[in-house]
């Protein structure tokens, strides 16, 4: 499945403009044969928008979800996008997967909040593994900081995730996560990992870009630079199966020794 990574911070504070950016990226991705487009963390509203997070937050089935479903259906590709989700009095840092026919397939709430900014504005999610079937692949979702916890990604591996979509707001000086940690996560868990970042200055943050799709061999199939960019790479089920046979980490585990980790 050809997968498109939209590296962009969009237009912070303007849902209307961000939907236009997403629509244009979907058009380009579909023309290039992509079956899935992944946008960054909090893409629909912007990340460093302070109290506007609460004002712009919507339910998972709200007007923004309907707008993304319409563009996904019109362009004929699935979309993963980050947004602030309102559920009653709580606001979550969420990411949602919508299929190429506009069906809402999965919604994930970030479980590990990074820093005072996120803890001040969001409630942490409680479900570590969220997955859906898409074009013959099991696609899992997590968000940014979550991928830095090896237990999180291993839980996805044990649950059978083939492609882990990670909308991200990775900031300076932590670019080593994109450069080094993400390929290692893909290797040690024998899956594809798509890490899709914001880019440029936004509020107090400087997002570093470097979006990548890493394969189960630990090799980046594509990597963006430090500017707004749409990059593409293929997720190959046959290569994944062969890699898992050659590198049987999951089969060779000894869970009885790991009790102290929890």
Compile the SSE list and pairings.
Layout: E1 2-7, H1 15-31, E2 36-38, H2 52-56, H3 63-75, E3 78-87, E4 90-98, E5 104-109, H4 115-121, E6 131-134, E7 137-141, H5 150-158, E8 163-167, H6 176-189, E9 192-196, E10 199-202, E11 205-208, E12 212-214, E13 220-223, E14 229-234, H7 237-246, H8 249-252
Parallel strand pairs: 1-2, 2-3, 7-8, 8-9
Antiparallel strand pairs: 1-14, 3-4, 4-5, 6-7, 9-12, 10-11, 12-13
Can you describe this structure?
This protein is an alpha/beta fold. Helix content is 30%, strand content 28%. The chain has helices spanning 15-31, 52-56, 63-75, 115-121, 150-158, 176-189, 237-246, 249-252; strands at residues 2-7, 36-38, 78-87, 90-98, 104-109, 131-134, 137-141, 163-167, 192-196, 199-202, 205-208, 212-214, 220-223, 229-234. Helix 1 packs parallel to helix 3 (63-75). The protein is globular and about 50 Å long. Strands 5-4-3-2-1-14 form a 6-stranded mixed sheet. The protein has a 6-stranded mixed sheet with strand order 6-7-8-9-12-13, covered by helices on one side. A two-stranded antiparallel sheet has the order 10-11. The model has no long low-confidence stretch (mean pLDDT 97). It contains 8 helices and 14 strands.
Summarize the structure.
The chain is an alpha/beta fold.
Supply the key terms.
262 residues; six-stranded mixed beta sheet; alpha/beta; 8 helices; globular
Gap between N and C termini: 36 Å
Approximate helicity band: 25-40%
> Which spans have pLDDT < 50 for at least 5 consecutive residues?
none
- Gross morphology is globular
Q: In what order do the strands lie side by side in the largest sheet?
A: 5-4-3-2-1-14
Classification by helices and strands: alpha/beta
Largest sheet: 6 strands, mixed
Please indicate the percent range of residues in DSSP E strands (runs of 2 or more). 25-35%
Mean pLDDT, rounded to whole units? 97
Total strand count, please? 14
What is the CA-based Rg, rounded? 17 Å
């Amino acid at each position: 499945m050809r997968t498109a990574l939209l590296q962009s911070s969009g237009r912070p504070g303007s849902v209307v403009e961000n939907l236009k950016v997403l629509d244009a990226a979907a058009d380009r991705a579909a023309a290039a044969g992509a079956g899935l487009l992944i946008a960054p963390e909090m893409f629909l509203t912007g990340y460093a928008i302070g109290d506007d997070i609460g004002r712009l937050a919507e339910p998972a089935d709200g007007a923004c979800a309907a707008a993304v479903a319409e563009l996904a259906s019109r362009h004929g590709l699935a979309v993963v996008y980050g947004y602030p989700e309102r559920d009653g009095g709580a606001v979550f840092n969420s990411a949602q997967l919508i299929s190429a026919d506009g069906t809402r397939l999965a919604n994930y709430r970030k479980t590990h909040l990074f820093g005072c900014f996120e803890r001040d504005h969001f409630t942490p999610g409680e479900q570590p593994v969220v997955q859906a079937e898409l074009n013959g692949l099991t696609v899992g979702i997590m968000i940014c900081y979550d991928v830095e916890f090896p237990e999180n990604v291993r839980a996805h591996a044990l649950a059978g995730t083939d492609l882990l979509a990670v909308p991200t707001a990775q900031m300076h000086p932590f670019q080593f996560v994109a450069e080094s940690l993400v390929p290692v996560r893909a290797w040690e868990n024998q899956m594809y990992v798509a890490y899709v970042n914001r880019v440029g200055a936004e509020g107090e943050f400087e997002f570093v870009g470097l979006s990548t799709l890493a394969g189960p061999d630990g090799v980046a199939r594509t990597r963006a630079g430090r500017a707004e960019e749409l990059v593409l790479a293929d997720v190959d089920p046959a290569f994944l199966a062969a890699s898992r046979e050659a590198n049987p980490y999951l089969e060779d585990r000894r869970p009885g020794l790991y009790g102290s980790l929890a």
